[in-house]
Design goal:
The chain has 361 residues and is an alpha/beta fold. It is 40% helix and 22% strand.
Length: 361
């Protein structure tokens, strides 16, 4: 609720408590109580007009004493707003006590921080209340790929835990850079080997297929000066493996939409891009049907379809995040069981794909 009020005041400074409550659909007494109890965030003048104490700063505070995955991180952004969309010049991410961040959320935080630096915004990540997550991020290689301009509190690790421990634990594949200027072609094999070692030999060929396809998409189509990255994490207690591949490029829709009208006219007329769900419909189509590509060569456009087939074979869940929407596809019984879009989301540039594999312990 504090984040909601802060977001409102960023766009509407010098508002009275009753106006804030009315606009947000909250009780006036609850709003006034929060305003007065948070003097570091809110300040008022003699006429009880409220404003932010630091209007140029946006704070994104993660959930305390909880596991934070991509879904809960997105719920938070929906309340605070994306730092890419807001007019603030300073952005602070706060990792509170007991906050454990899953790899799908870590990937989005990393991409968002680097995109903010690209826009010349000042960025801080504060781990002072949760040193254990700072240690995990170092082991994951998060800081190896985090823009040097980002301030890390209490301090950025002097040595990379990822470099020290790389390859010593099949349950984690440290964040690996996918730079189209100098791509590391060993990444798909490393991810495949860890997935097989954690989940079984039955994943061997299929894992290499879908990881190679997604790696190739980032390498060949992202069109971003910020390198993409890939990583894997095994969560034994939940019996789950997450494989993430992310980039900060133009996105699947950004790549395909411009070519639909002259290359795929039936599909072009089927989709109405004046509606927010059209992007998710296009992504769902390419995962189910394939054969849609921005390239001119014959036989292209099957990579995401093959990835969907792998997800079906292993009853995985696939989440695809684009600039302002997300599509989740749930596979069971060897086929796509259901899909659901989430539209009008706060901005994160690029394509962020997560495969969730449920495996036997």
């Amino acid at each position: 609720m504090i984040a909601q009020i802060a977001r409102f005041l960023r766009s509407n400074p010098r508002a009275k408590g009753r106006e804030i409550a009315r606009q947000l659909g909250l009780e006036k007494g609850v709003v006034n109580s929060l305003l007065y109890k948070n003097p570091k965030t809110f300040a008022h003048d003699d006429e009880q007009h409220w404003s932010l104490t630091e209007p140029n700063k946006l704070t994104v505070a993660l959930e305390e004493e909880a596991w934070v995955g991509a879904s809960s991180f997105e719920n938070l952004l929906a309340v605070t707003g994306s730092p890419l969309d807001e007019t603030c010049s300073e952005v602070e991410f706060v990792v509170p006590k007991g906050c454990k961040i899953m790899i799908d959320a870590a990937a989005r935080i990393l991409a968002l921080c680097n995109q903010l630096v690209m826009l010349r915004k000042s960025v801080t990540i504060d781990f002072s209340a949760c040193k254990s997550t700072l240690t995990y991020f170092n082991r994951l290689g998060f800081f190896d790929h985090l823009a040097g301009a980002v301030c890390v509190v209490p301090e950025r690790p002097s040595q990379s835990g990822a470099v020290t421990h790389r390859g010593k634990n099949d349950g984690v594949v440290e964040l690996a850079s996918i730079d189209h200027r100098n791509p590391d072609e060993s990444i798909p094999k490393r991810l495949k080997n860890s997935l097989v070692n954690c989940a079984g030999e039955q994943y061997s060929q299929s894992a290499f297929t879908f990881i190679s396809e997604l790696f190739g998409n980032v390498r060949d189509h992202a069109k971003s000066e910020i390198p993409g990255f890939a990583a894997l994490q095994y969560y034994p207690r939940g019996g789950k493996i997450q494989v993430v591949i992310s980039d900060s490029g133009i996105g699947i829709v950004g790549s395909l939409q411009p070519v639909l009208e002259h290359k795929y006219q039936d599909l072009f007329h089927r989709l109405d891009f004046s509606k927010p769900e059209a992007g998710a419909e296009l992504v769902l189509y390419v995962f189910k049907q394939g054969r849609v590509s921005s390239a001119n060569e014959d036989g292209r456009g099957l990579g995401l379809k093959r990835s969907g087939d792998v997800a079906a074979n292993f009853n995985a869940t696939v989440t695809v995040r684009q600039k302002n929407f997300e599509l989740t596809m749930v596979y069971s019984g060897g086929q796509l069981n259901r899909s659901y879009p989430r539209v009008d989301m706060p901005s994160i540039l690029g394509t962020h794909i997560c495969f969730d594999f449920l495996i036997d312990s």
